[in-house]
Amino acid sequence: MKNWLKIVAVVLLIYVHTAGLLLDVPRLNILNETIRALYFHVPMWFGMVLLFLISVYHAIRYLRNPSIETDRKSVEYANIGLLFGILGIVTGMLWANYAWGTPWHGDPKQNGAAITLLVYLAYFVLRGSIENSEQRARLSAVYNIFAFAAMVPLIFIIPRLTSSMHPGSGGNPGFNMYDLDSSMRPVFYPAVIGWFLVGLWIVSIRVKVKELEEKILDLHDENK
Amino acid sequence: MVFKLIRKEFILELRRKSVIAGISLYLFSLIFICYFTFSLRQNSISPATWSALFWLTILFSVVNSVAKSFIGEKKGTFIYYYGVASPQAIILSKIIYNTVLCLLLSLGGYLLFSLFIDNPIQDHLLFVGSLFLASFGFAASLSLISGIASKANNSNILMAVLSFPVVIAILLMAINLTKNALDGIDRSASTDELLNLLAINCISTALAYLLFPYIWRS
C-alpha cells in the first residue's frame, strides 16, 4: 500500500473523530446525539461489503489462475471484512441500546447481518478442516463466491421487503431524509473512505506478515 | 448425458431401498416427535408454530438426504464419473434428482403433518408451489455444498455448518409464503416472495453450474 494513502487514512480519521464528535448534527426526536453513530457504524458496513467484494474478486482470480498469492489475499480480505462486520454489529448494538431500548431487537437488518457473519465464520471453519493446502484454497474460493451471492439477498433485499425499524429500510427514511441541510455529508463521506483505507492497510500488513512467515518456514525446511 | 445420469440416480436409489427407507423413517420419526412433544390434542398449536415446526422438519431431513449425494459415494465411482461425464452434466443431474427427492420429502412431510398434527393451510396451491420452489432452491445450493463438504475431513458436521447460513434466505422466503398461504390472503400479495425465491434459485443454480467444475477437478 502506498505511503500517501496511509497518511490520507490517518488524516481523514483524525478529522472524522474530531468533527464527528464536535460539529453540529441535526436535532431529532429519539435519535438526539446518537445520530453520530452514523459516522462510525455505517462506514463499517460499507467497509465490510467492499472488503468481501475484493475477497470474492481474488477468489475468482484464484479459480482462473491458481497461485498462493491470490489465495492469501482472498483470505485476508475476508478476515478483515469479518472484523469490520463484527465491529459494525457491536456499534449497531450500542446505538440500538439507546435508540430502540435493547441491544438486540431482532430487526431483519440485525438478523441478516448476524447470518452474514455466520456465513464467513463457516468459511474459516471450512478452511480449518481441509489439510491439503491446494485443495483448501480451491474449495474455500468456491465457497467464498457462493457465500457472497447468498449474502446479497440477506442484507440488501430482505430487510427492504419486510418491516424493519432500521433507518433506510422497511419504508423508514434513510440518512438522506434526516440530513435535510446536508450537514452530515462532509463528515460521513470522509469517514467511509478513511475506515476503508484503514481496512486496506491492515490487509496489506497481514498479507506481508503471512508472506514472511512462509519464507521463514521454507528456510527452516531447507536447513533440515 | 444429463438424462442418463438422472436415470442412473433413480435406478441406483430404487435398488438400494434401505436409503429411501432410512430417509422416510427419519422424516416420520421427526414428525412423530413433534406430535408427541406438542401434546396429543388436535388444534393445540397456532399456525405460526405449525409453520416453524414444518420447515424445521423439512430442513433437517432435506439437509440429511441431500448431504449423501456426494458424501456417501465411494472414491471409485467418482473416478468412473470423471471418465464418462462432464462436471456440468453431473451437477445438473444431481440438482434435478435432488429437487425431485426434496419435493417428495416435503410433500410426504406435508401429508404426515396434516395426518398427525394439523393442516391449517388455506391456500393449498400456493403452499405446494412454494414447496416446489423451496425444494429446488435447497437442491441447488445443497448439492454444491455437499460437493465441497465431501472433500473435507469431518464432512457431516461441515455440511450443516456450511449449508445453514446459505439456505436461510430461501427458508425466510418460504416461511413468508407459508404465512400467506396459512392466512389464505390474495395471491397477488405473494408474487413478490415467489419472484424473489425464483431469483435466488436462479442465482444458486447458475453458481453451482459455474463453480462445480472447480470442485470436481481434484
Query: Could you estimate the helical fraction of the residues of chain B in percent?
Result: over 70%
Strand content of chain A: under 5%
Computed structural class of chain B: mainly alpha
Tally of helical segments of chain B: 8
Instruction: Tell me the count of domains of chain B.
Output: 1
* Structural class by sheet pairing and helices of chain A: mainly alpha
Helix segment tally of chain A: 7
| Cα end-to-end separation of chain A | 35 Å
CA radius of gyration of chain B: 18 Å
Oligomer: heterodimer
Globally, the shape of chain A reads globular
Order of helices and strands of chain B: HHHHHHHH
Largest sheet of chain A: none
- Largest β sheet strand count, sense and barrel closure of chain B: none
Largest interface: A-B, 28 and 31 residues
Mean pLDDT of chain B: 83
* Dominant shape of chain B: globular
Beta fraction of chain B: under 5%
Features:
heterodimer, A: 224 residues, mainly alpha, 7 helices, B: 8 helices, 82% helix, globular
How do the strands and helices of this protein lay out in sequence?
The complex is a heterodimer of chains A (224) and B (218).
Chain A lengths: L2 H20 L15 H27 L3 H32 L8 H21 L4 H29 L13 H4 L6 H39 L1
Chain B lengths: L1 H14 L1 H21 L9 H21 L7 H10 L2 H30 L7 H27 L4 H29 L7 H26 L2
Helix pairs in contact in B: 1-5, 2-3, 2-5, 3-5, 3-6, 3-7, 5-6, 5-8, 6-7, 6-8, 7-8
